[in-house]
Specification:
about 140 residues; mainly alpha; about 0% strand; 5 helices
């Protein structure tokens, strides 16, 4: 069995990148207002504990996602930005866009919400793919 050697610092940096991108993506600068309106979050709500738990869970999820994407990057042999971006895109299309498109339709959620949420993951996975391919 081939043993993979991961760059743990690159995986951590990828998770931080995703987390920071999410903080910007879902901030008032970009998509906070339309996203909050579509998911039913009211400004000034008293959900501070839920917000903290969500941020921690988001970071842990980003660590797991970065670790899994590192596997895909290593297995594919991607060592350039273009190949890393392609692997990130393929992961996004297969593991995010395809299954979530059906659930958004079944749940009757607006396309704009789909675009905001899946747009974030597209940018995050492509950026993470690039980072992991270059920093191996």
């Amino acid at each position: 069995m081939h043993h993979l050697h991961f760059n743990h610092l690159a995986i951590l940096a990828s998770a931080i990148l995703q987390w920071l991108l999410g903080a910007i993506w879902y901030s008032p600068v970009l998509f906070a207002k339309p996203w909050a309106a579509m998911v039913g979050i009211t400004p000034g709500g008293s959900k501070k504990n839920a917000m903290i738990a969500g941020m921690i869970t988001s970071f842990v999820g980003s660590l797991v996602l970065s670790f899994v994407l590192a596997h895909l990057i290593l297995w594919s042999g991607a060592t350039t930005a273009a190949w890393g971006a392609l692997i990130g895109f393929i992961a996004w299309a297969g593991f995010m866009a395809a299954p979530f498109s059906a659930s958004y339709i079944y749940e009757g959620r607006p396309f704009k919400l789909f675009a905001i949420n899946l747009g974030y993951w597209l940018v995050a996975l492509v950026a993470t793919g690039i980072l992991l391919a270059l920093w191996h």
